[in-house]
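Task: complex structure prediction.
Instruction: return structure tokens for all chains below.
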Amino acid sequence: MSPRLPSLVLALPLLFGGWGAVAAPTGPATAPIPVGVLAVLDDQDTQRQWQPLLDGMSAALPNRRLQLHPLDPAGMERELAAGRLAFVITNPGHYVVIEARHGATRIATQTAAEGGDPAHAVGSAVVVRADRPLPRELMDLKDHRVAAVAEQAFGGYQLVAAEWSRQGIDAESGAVQRLFTGYPMTRVLDAVLQGQADAAILRTCLLERWVREGRVAAGALRVVAAQPDSRLPCQSSTPLYPGWAFAASPHVPPDLAREVALALLTLAPDAQGTRWSVPADYQRVHDVLRTLEVEPYAFLRATRLEALARRYWFVLGAVLAVLALGLLYTLRVEALVKRRTAELTRSLHERDRLARELEKDQEAMDHLSRLSILGELSATLGHELNQPLATIANYAASVQRRLTQGRLSDAALQQALQDIGSEADRAAHILEGIRALARKRVAQRRLSDPAQLAAEAVALFRGLQAHAPEVRLQVHPSCQGLAVLVDALQVQQVLLNLLKNALDAHRAASTDQAPLHCRLHAEAGQVCLAVEDAGPPLSHEQRSRLFEPFFTTKPDGLGLGLPICRTIVEAHGGALRARPVDELGRTGGMVFEVWLPVAPADPGPSRTPQEPLP
Amino acid sequence: MTPRPVPVIHVVDDDAAFLRSVLFMLEGCGFEAAGHATAEAFLDAAPALAPSGGCLLLDIRMPRMSGLELQRRLVESGSPFPIVFMTGHGDIEQAVQAMKGGALDFLQKPFKEQALLDTVNRAVEASVERQRLRARQAEARAVLERLSPREREVARLLALGLSNKEVARDLDISDHTVHVHRQRITEKTGSGHAADLARLLLRADPAGLDAG
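Output:
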């Protein structure tokens, strides 16, 4: 993020490791005392500007000889870290940096030639060409091209940048189009004069000096937002700050530092009129640098995230890890829930579909079963319909004969018509019973009287089965007043099947005309409808397979009757059981028992109107 | 033809309506008809019924006692009624059995009035014929009853065409004794000729000429 961050990180170990490694800072008294001077323009210029000062001091201090070392900020840093400098002369901004980083201590502050206050010696002047009306304020420079010598220049850039920052303009992120020309500062001036920039940032008094020296035409440039300040007779766009600092490195012996300081303070002003005064308070310089978040406050930018991250990386890591785990867990749970939900939905749909199919299959099976039993029963159905039809034909023929012979009595006609009518009804009822069985239908459960159900099934059986043997229906008193919630037609179908089976069993034993028994009784909340035959004995194997689909003992049987019966009965919450009449198997005969749960007592009419059946 | 008593047609069917319609039809044709709801009911009533040239229309399938069973019982008891069975179209096997058992005919339901009329008329004739035969048999038996056992034996041998001498030898008696027996037989039956005796014996019993 910030290019300054690595330098800080690298600098810290140098700082601490450097002091321990430093040799004795000063040699013998005759040895030259190294003085690092920040080179603003170039080494020669620096030499030319500062050598007189050092010479003067060397003269003032017996047995001391100060040696000038022009250094750029990086060189200064390197030499200080190596402990090879005793004193440093540098601008306020840079002083604050080395004070913080190397423990340098100012022993004097330079005053401006034009004023005597060391605490208000430096400011910045933002200059624009005088023929341009704008900008009037520093804020107006937003989105303008502004030339400056370097980003680290204190009077040449940082003071203005701090003002911008205080006014909410973030020059660094492009609110101002900055153009750094590099030293010397005349390049900045050239940029404005030649139109490469709209404005230029100059150290205070530089413009006035250049005008005096004739390098710039008077009135060609003007200073933006010039603030009059009595402490410095130069135009400044910013407040004034302390001047350059003369600082001692921490390993300079206090005596030497005191000697140098005294020499500085007592030195006569130089050619330009500048002199050294008591050390000023550099707090406001710190404020500027802190505002800009530059060295030594560059860590402020880092603090915001990186420094915190570096300091509390484990907490942050743990928090992030927990968050990540939580997120993963949430995602996983969500995915699982989604998948399970999908599975559940799918299986629910599947179950519904199967249930629907099963229902359809069940209805189809019921239908098939009804048709099947109809087919079996209606082998003799012709007979049964024959009876009423033959009766009607008999009457018709006879009435006709009597009529032609003129001896048809009213009484005879009455009898004939009465029987013809009732026989026609009988035939219709037989057909209706068959139609009801053959019709495809949806089961409808109603409260029904089991005795009535059995009686109707027996009547239907006898009606369908010409010359069927007698069916003896016995209803035990325990059934009195009980109702079952059933589909009457389905239960009749079951009973018809059982009666038909019983009849088949009798035929197999050549006891066609032996009576069948149908017995009803109630027990433990259930009604039992039992059909008993006297057929040939069944083997144990046959008995155990009775309810298997497609198992049959009859040559022309489908083997679906009993399985379907059982399905129907179980669908009613009941059970269909088979047992031999004689458990010891000494005689033949089976009892098929339909057990149906007794419906809760209903105060209303407990029986639904049933179709009259033959 | 000799005037005959009004024949009574007995009908046995468990289907009450059908029974009534058959009776109605028979009456419409001038017959006297009587209905019986079950085989048992008819069996109970049979001994008291005068044959009177009547016949029996019998439903072949009935609960409890079936038509075939009733037929068997009636034959056993020597009932004079010719039996016409009424069958459904699926009852061919039983109809065959019925015919083997001596049934006169069978009518398949539903039947035309004319078919009923024809069949019943034939049954009535058969009944009358059967009754005539029975009457002659009874007469012949009554005649034979007058003979002593020895006379019946002699008559049988004479009917087979044996001479007096052959009879005497067969029975190990004298010619004279045979002659006396023959005289008695002629007195009692009205004829001593072999052909007459043979007719008499066969009328009394179709197996009457076999060795006793």
